[in-house]
Amino acid sequence: MAWLRLQAVAAVLALLAAAGVTHSFEFHEATVDAIQLGFRNGSLTSAALVRFYLDQIRRMNPLLHAVIEVNPDALRQAARADAERRRGMATGALHGVPVLLKDNIATCDALNTTAGSLALLGSVVKRDAGVAARLRRAGAVVLGKASLSEWANFRNVHNGWSARGGQTRNPYVLSSDPCGSSSGSGVAAAANMAAVTLGTETDGSILCPSSFNSVVGIKPTVGLTSRAGVVPITPRQDSVGPMCRTVSDAVHVLDAIVGYDKLDAAATRTASKYIPRGGYLQFLKKDGLKGKRIGVPNEFFQGVGEKQMRVYKQHLATIRKHGAVVIENLDIATGRQDIVSNEWTAMLTEFKLSINEYLADLSYSPVHSLAGIIAFNKAHPIEERLKDFGQQNLILAQNTNGIGHVERAWIRLLKKLSANGLEKMMKEQQLDAIVAPEHYASNHLAIGGHPGIVVPAGYNEKGVPFGICFGGLQGYEPRLIEMAYAFEQATEVRRPPMFKP
Ligand SMILES: *[C@@H]1O[C@H](CO)[C@@H](O)[C@H](O)[C@H]1NC(C)=O
Ligand SMILES: *[C@@H]1O[C@H](CO)[C@@H](O)[C@H](O)[C@H]1NC(C)=O
User: Fold this and answer.
1) pLDDT at position 337, please?
2) How far is the CA of 51 from the centre of ligand 1 (A)?
3) By three-state DSSP, how is residue 500 classified?
4) Which residues of the chain have pLDDT under 50?
5) Name one Pfam family in it (predicted).
6) What is the distance between the alpha carbons of residues 399 and 402, in angstroms, rounded to a whole number?
7) Following DSSP, what letter does each residue of 271-337 receive, concatenated?
8) For residues 129 and 358, what is the distance between their CA atoms, to the nearest angstrom?
């Protein structure tokens, strides 16, 4: 009997050896599912995973400037996650998984939350942002903070520069634009400097850097994820979402961060009706394109280069082959230019109100208002590169006087532009989604509070990545995930970065 058992063990060992099983975990490009499998089969600990990403950050951040701060508590959190797992207390896909947060997402720990600006360095938050609190409850490890475009359009920073983070670079082609404002999140995900990351979007700030860095970005319906504790631009459009290497990873993160938050009550209550029973994982379907009606608005594809256009045409053929009805040559009655000017006017007023509210809620801060930020920049022109990026738009915002008659009219106009534009077309054509290159649909999605998902679509002649966006109406996340996942599985475009000059 004992001899038989011994023989069986020997046979298994021989099989393992023959299969070349080394028991070692492959850290590069690790997915959340692989990580959980590694935890279960004993080839991986959360501590080992954190050490891997800290090492990646140490090696690559001097080049890429994607990370502003690493969490001195990350290894301790990982050890706690490992201990919980040994006691059988680990639940959920993100347990023990290291997450990098864009630096405008507050954490009440050793990490600073500064939106990349020296003006906010030393500010102390009262509590975790709503999404950060959810990640902690899910057992995720907070790895650190990702760099971003400092104050984005308000300082004409579009390319991922911030005073604290420096110039974030694209890991595929170092000389090319990583896009913003969630540049650090996109770059860190692309270059394996974190397992998963969070970004935020007001208009294009998740979709664009996801596209330019060949990662999957989900900009959720506004209010699906809490904005409490996030350095704001406007509550009318701000949204927090995942930026990850795969659709599946992004959906795991989405599942963890959606839901009601009493500190962002109105928006999260309204949007929580969209959260499906059982979460979003059920929509990872290989045949998710089957039977979908997908519109292709002309406007988005104007100005796309010839080679890139050929790739998109191939993708449309693939989408058709997988059972979707693709309707080309559609027109949206509202043009992007109509949106941009009106959106900007409303945003100037809303930004002043929201940033002042954020600053007022801090338990300590070196600056207490937008006026204080402007004065700080003026007093630190070199560090804040005032010559290159200016702050005229911060000053324009400062000169606004709250939401009155005129501002309410702008906001009504934006709603109308959305209702008569994207929403009308999608309803008339009974579309499940529109597709667009890169982030070109972001204006339409922004003003309606609508969701979008970017998936890697290709690389241009120089090796610079570009994505494809599936956009829908509020609450369309389930079907967008079906389409994005099916597309990703059918095309398998993403490859790790090459660090070309
Ligand atoms: C455990 O799972 C990982 C996949 O996450 C795999 O790479 C590794 O080889 C597995 N190890 C064992 C001992 O089965
Ligand atoms: C936060 O900022 C302070 C400077 O105000 C710095 O000393 C500290 O190291 C920063 N924290 C982290 C985790 O980097």
Assistant:
1) 87
2) 18
3) strand
4) 1-4, 6-21
5) Amidase
6) 10
7) HGGGSPTT-SGGG--TTTTTT-EEEEEHHHHTT--HHHHHHHHHHHHHHHHTT-EEEEEE--SS-HH
8) 11
Ligand 1 pocket mutation pick from 13, 15, 23 by most atoms within 8 angstroms of CB:
23
* Closest ligand to the CA of 49: 1
**132 domain-assigned:** yes
Active-site residue identified among 182, 185, 205, 354: 205
91 close to ligand 1 (CB < 6 Angstrom): no
Residue 12 inside a domain? The answer is: no
Q: For residue 477, how far is the Cα from the chain centroid?
A: 14
Whether 160 is in a domain gets the answer yes
Q: In this structure, are residues 414 and 449 in contact, taking their beta carbons and an 8 Å threshold?
A: no
Q: Is the CB of 110 under 6 A from ligand 2?
A: yes
pLDDT at 90: 82
Which CA distances in Å does 299 have to 201, 310, 414, 434? 22, 17, 19, 12
Which one, of 443, 439, 442, lies nearest residue 455 by Cα?
A: 439
Among 12, 36, 37, 46, say which to mutate for ligand 1: greatest number of ligand atoms within 8 Å of CB: 37
Provide the domain count of the chain.
1
Backbone angles phi and psi of 404, in degrees to 5: -110, -155
* Cβ of residue 112 lying under 6 Å from some atom of ligand 2: yes
20 part of a folded domain: no
Ligand 2, from 67, 69, 70, 142: best to mutate by most atoms within 8 Å of Cβ? 69
With a 6 Å cutoff on the Cβ, whether 454 touches ligand 2 is: no
What is the predicted pLDDT for the residue at 13?
45
Q: Tell me, using a 6 A CB cutoff, whether residue 111 lines ligand 2.
A: yes
| 120's tokens | 């906010």
Query: Which residue segment(s) compose the domain that 148 sits in?
Result: 27-491
Alpha helical stretches, state H, 42-169: 46-64, 74-86, 130-137
Which CA distances in Å does 318 have to 141, 326, 377? Answer: 38, 10, 50
Q: Which residue has the tokens 């402007």?
A: 374
Q: In this predicted structure, what is the pLDDT of residue 23?
A: 65
CA of 69 to the centre of ligand 2 (A): 8
Instruction: Say how far apart CA 441 and CA 140 lie, in whole Å.
Output: 32
Distance 117 CA to ligand 2 centre (A): 13
pTM, to two decimals:
0.95
Residue 246: which CATH number? 3.90.1300.10
Q: Which residue's CA is minimally distant from atom 12 of ligand 1?
A: 23
